[in-house]
Amino acid sequence: MVAGDPVRQVQAPAIFNRIFQRHGVDAVLVPAQVPAAHFSTFARAVLGADNIQALWLTIPHKTTLVDELGRMDTAARVAGAVNAVRRGADGQLEGALFDGEGLVSALHHWQLAPTGQRVLLVGAGGAGAAIAVALVAAGVSELRVRDADPGRAARLLQRLQAHAWPASGTGPRLTVWDGHAPLNDVDLVIHATPLGLHADDPLPLEVADLRPGAAVVDILMKPQATPLMRACAERGLTVHPGFEMLVQQVPDYLRFVGLPELAGTLAQDLSEVRRHLMTAPPG
Amino acid sequence: MVAGDPVRQVQAPAIFNRIFQRHGVDAVLVPAQVPAAHFSTFARAVLGADNIQALWLTIPHKTTLVDELGRMDTAARVAGAVNAVRRGADGQLEGALFDGEGLVSALHHWQLAPTGQRVLLVGAGGAGAAIAVALVAAGVSELRVRDADPGRAARLLQRLQAHAWPASGTGPRLTVWDGHAPLNDVDLVIHATPLGLHADDPLPLEVADLRPGAAVVDILMKPQATPLMRACAERGLTVHPGFEMLVQQVPDYLRFVGLPELAGTLAQDLSEVRRHLMTAPPG
To answer: How far apart (Å, rounded) are the C-alpha atoms in residues B109 and B243?
Structure first.
């Protein structure tokens, strides 16, 4: 079950039910439109049914349950948000956030392995936080974070140092980017703010400051192409649309509901999901 | 959503999802396995989602919610059981019981219109009570009720007189049948007890006492044919399997979830449901 409010725009049922059908899995993903005030009650009640494996969450529910979860993965803890909750063997609710891992998998899909790269992350909200955790885990050499609220960027860096630091101890160089320091040494830019959603939004960064070999990913889903993507393309920069981040999360969701074998055999399905999201970008 | 415990045997999702698919209705019926102790919480939470129209109930949940319902139809009130609950416009839970109407529709399907008939009902439990309400509403001239517990039969007759009496005032002759009075004036027998489910069960009535023109309906679903059906067939009596009662309820369920147009165009679908239930009789 995937819960949101609204939920009509959510593409997950179309995507996952086609996968279940093709692979002969006796499961169905059902959308539930649940008001925020009712969501905690709803989630606990639904996860009390013996044949409902998990609840997948979209806006506004990704942050609602966080304080009630017994267990969370690191990305969820740092971002304060979850993509999915389930009931653990001991009855406790456990949550996971896949956005960041999805973005790193997308980078590999584009042959942009992030290990050792200098990365600028624009946006320190929930999505940005999830991505930051995954980039640290993937071994970037440097992570600069920009946010319209510099305090929010600094707090994200603190949470990364508290929760997401590699066991080895040698993490990346972490800095808050003030918007003025030069960008010509950045290898990769990830854009994770809503800027571009409205026609009169400014660009989230000055594209002209990037070096010609830099790659850009814009996780804004609409409009396609986004204003940032168009500006990068005009300048001849390599630019990628963010919905690949969603494509690459499909196996994560399947593993979370106990279908790891299925998660491993999805090459054809992911091509189809990619085509589906190109023609119906998620809201 | 249809809730039971267990729920694996329930045929409703296969039946209704095929109907939704064929008619292009954007809806899905999902089974939920819910422990009885958790059911009240579950039902209220699920019906709080804006896109979940109703909850359909099977064993053991048909009786669980009855005391919490704001509104019930007459059959539900007399039987103390519901097949379906939904949230009314004012937020109150409302329930309905379709078993009895389904049985009367099945009688019409077999061209056994019950109006003016003398009927023996064997079994005064939930199913028997639902059927009794519908038979009174259909204008039977006489209703004799037998139950292994004569007190239970008498209480059913009292509830019928209190709740189900026709507005005109001229209801049928109601009696508790003691198992000894002659049966040779009975037109129609409805069997609504579990007798026959186990191999060593006695027959629920002495078939030899029925007159040759009498018709018999056995609503016991398994085994098919039931012992009573076999005994009737051996004696040359007209006998019908009870799953037609389920077939004929399909439109009731669709009307309950706000799909009256669909409920009116099901001739082909009901033939298919009939074939489905013949090959996979419900538990």
So the answer is: 12
Q: Which long-range contacts (CB under 8 A, 24 or more apart) does B95-99 make?
A: B95/B65, B95/B66, B95/B69, B95/B71, B96/B72, B96/B252, B96/B256, B97/B72, B97/B73, B97/B130, B98/B130, B98/B249, B98/B252, B98/B253, B98/B256, B99/B75, B99/B126, B99/B127, B99/B130, B99/B131, B99/B245, B99/B249
Sign of the four-CA dihedral B99, B104, B107, B111: negative
User: Quick one: which H or E segment has residue A87?
Assistant: strand A84-87
* Distance, CA of B176 to CA of B153 (rounded, Å): 6
Which residue in B43, B56, B62, B186 is the catalytic one?
Answer: B62
Question: Is B62 tagged catalytic?
Answer: yes
pLDDT per position as a tens digit, A146-204? 999 999 999 999 999 988 777 666 789 999 998 888 899 999 999 999 999 999 999 99
Reported as a single tens digit per residue, the pLDDT across B184-204 is 999 999 999 999 999 999 999
Of A62, A77, A146, A240, the catalytic one is A62
Average pLDDT over residues B110-129: 95
CB < 8 Å to B49, chain A = 3, 32-34, 38, 42
Domains (range + CATH), chain B: 2-98+249-279 (3.40.50.10860), 100-242 (3.40.50.720)
Question: In the beta sheet, which residues pair with residue A84?
Answer: A56, A96
